[in-house]
Amino acid sequence: MSLLEVSGVNSYYGDSHILFDVGMRVEKNEVVALLGRNGAGKSTTFKSLAGVVKPKTGSVKLDGVEVAGKKAHEIAMAGLQLVHEERRVFGSLNVEENIVLAGLTAKNKWPLERIYSIFPRLHERKTSRGTDLSGGEQQMLAIARALVRDPKIILLDEPFEGLAPVIVQDLIRVCHDLAKAGQTIVLIEQNLAAAMALASRAYILNNGQIVHEGTTAELKKQPEVIQRYLGV
Ligand SMILES: Nc1ncnc2c1ncn2[C@@H]1O[C@H](COP(=O)(O)OP(=O)(O)OP(=O)(O)O)[C@@H](O)[C@H]1O
After folding, report:
1. What is the Cα–Cα distance from 2 to 201, expressed in whole angstroms?
2. pLDDT (tens digit, 9 = 90+) per residue, 203-228?
3. Beta carbons of 179 and 201 less than 8 angstroms apart
4. Atom 2 (ligand 1): residue with closest C-alpha?
5. Buried b / exposed e across 208-232, counting CB within 10 Å, b at 16+?
6. Mutational test site, ligand 1, from 22, 42, 204, max ligand atoms within 8 Å of CB
7. Torsional class of 202: left (φ above 0), alpha (ψ -120 to 50), beta (otherwise)
8. Which residues lie with the beta carbon below 6 Å from any ligand 1 atom?
9. 145 touches 76 (CB < 8 A)
10. According to DSSP H, which parts of 31-159 are helical?
11. Most CB contacts within 10 A, which of 14, 79, 94, 112?
């Protein structure tokens, strides 16, 4: 049994059919990338897994438990944490308050020291308000808010978007460390090099359908697939 098993997911916005029979599986401790052009349905897939969008049909099993159709907070309680592209942090609260608040309703939570050992920068900035953080710091905080709840799996929607290359390198290192420590991660990433650097396997979405699945090592050797589905 895989940690996450998704099959036959069809999702809509109103009458618009966006996802067509999406299926994927993620093993415990894996880092998997979800790739595809703008509008391919990547964010909708994440939202469908996290219960933000309710799939019309299909199955989403987290650690053997069916969560499709459940509410977003129930799925979060079950151990799936979505880190939205918009990096939702509370601007009026400081860094530490943001982290503590995120952990309040969690069954198990990480001690703050564990969060700060991963993100020393957040420790330095712990009394700064969310609004005073740089984009990179906000992304660290958004990830910290997910991790503090001791998730079984985290979904990172374009975690490196709009960040300076030096910050991206820093975050890639953090993701590597998390993966080494056994954290299961699925990420959406437009930056193919960054995705390949992190993920051992990838799925490619095109027009709401999974059109390719394989290891990133294999994908690197298939420029025609990259060009067909990811080329601009
Ligand atoms: N709230 C919404 N209401 C209606 N249509 C939407 C909504 N959000 C997304 N869509 C449409 O659904 C399709 C898939 O969008 P989605 O955001 O999942 O794609 P994506 O692969 O994540 O692309 P991007 O990188 O641009 O976010 C697009 O055609 C988009 O216009």
Report:
1. 14
2. 999 999 999 999 999 999 999 999 99
3. no
4. 13
5. bebebeeebeebeeeeebbeebbee
6. 42
7. beta
8. 13, 16, 18, 36, 38-44
9. no
10. 42-50, 72-78, 95-103, 112-118, 120-124, 135-147
11. 79
231 contact partners, CB below 8 Å, separation of at least 6:
none
Q: Cβ distance 33 to 201 under 8 Å?
A: yes
- Report the amino acid identity of residue 94: N
Beta partners for residue 59, in sequence order: 7
Residue 64 DSSP one-character state: T
| Those residues with Cβ within 8 angstroms of residue 227's Cβ, 6 or more apart along the chain or in another chain | none
**Type of residue at 165:** P
Residues in the chain: 232
Q: In the numeric block, which tokens belong to residue 128?
A: 């700064």
Domains and CATH numbers, the chain: 2-79+152-230 (3.40.50.300), 89-146 (no CATH)
Tell which atom from ligand 1 comes closest to the C-alpha of 190: 25
For the stretch 43-95, pLDDT in tens is 999 999 999 999 999 999 999 999 999 999 999 999 999 999 887 889 899 99
Atom of ligand 1 at shortest distance to CA of 85? 27
The position carrying tokens 């969060």 is 115
Ligand 1 centroid – CA 99 distance (Å): 29
